Fold:
Amino acid sequence: MNSSQNPHLYSRQLSIDYSIELINVIVGARRTGKSYFLLKEIAEIGDKKCLYINLESDEFIDFDIRMLSEFIDRNIDGKKYLFIDEIQDVENWEKLVRKLYERKQYFITLTGSSSKMLSNDISTVLRGRSVNYHMYPFSFFEIASQEIMPYDKYVSNGGFVQLLLIKNSSAYIADYKKQVVYKDVLERFNLKNLDLLHYLIDFICENAGSPISYRNIALATVAAGLDTSLETIIQYVRYLKDAGFVSEVEFYSRSVKKRLVNNKKFYPLDHRFVKNGVGASFETMTYNNLLSYGADVNHYLTDYEVDFVVTVGESTIPIQACCDILDDKTKEREVGAILKFWDDHHYLDSPFGIVVTRKYKGVEHFGAKKIVFATFEEVFRDGFGGYVQLL
Structure:
């Protein structure tokens, strides 16, 4: 990548379909490129047709819903496209959005860094009149298709392409976590326990991909000298999930009770944040690329572990993420878990399993089924969906 090139000019794996009948809602964590995506859209549509409002810019500090409504009315004349960035920063924003929508005069696109806005508020207010998109750090498909950086660089750098232009990337990562704590959690939810939030972020980054219960997190928190309760732990992790920094992966089961009572897995937004080793980083990288594809991802753990149980259409695919599978014991463990999963879930449409590796490639057949060993580059270079179709 040319160091003089703005990394935000790269395209995202996101295609917006503009319609007066539907509001586009783009939700993603801080610094995943939502604003730059909107600016790129505006450049393609034409500035004269668009009104763009970034509610985190100095111009709109302390704006309330009345001030925002008046600003739009003064500046919307002759424009068909309305883009409002970080809409959740204005209290009662949903009332204004509904009023604008009911005029049926504009193509409305909103962004926000709150998953609650996507899943609850928008759905409640607009009652099916919105189409929702989620933006993550750059996936490997986006990286490879635009030749942003080689695979080895992606492994060490992560999906935040802006880090390619920053010398002190560790400081950037530390600052990012502070921004999540202060702006996206403490301020938004008016919380007081700063130490607990810092601890939980570090705990998740140090235990990425480890099956664990909320009760165990609470026990570790108390052991670290922080006086808190299980209910508070659950609530604070929920806030981190809402800010997009943490993903929670449930146990795979058709039983709701089993999904609730079994251990979860937690992953940070990008593998660059992982602190518990190369294997955990590789697993997190695999998970986040499955997530960016839009797959329904669970995990499975009894007397054996399947890292990911991925639902694609009618098929259920057991997937292991194993950075180094060169020794026989490791290979036997990964393959054995997939075979046991098939035995325990014989009713599933599960034609093959995948072991994602760093270098090892191959195929092993087990009756009508097969386990494919494929490198991370091979699985995700052209998009996970495309790879599955080839199988």
Q: What stands out?
A: Residues 98 and 126 are 7 Å apart (CA to CA). DSSP finds 15 helices and 13 strands in the chain. The chain has a mean pLDDT of 90. The first strand starts at residue 23 and ends at 28.
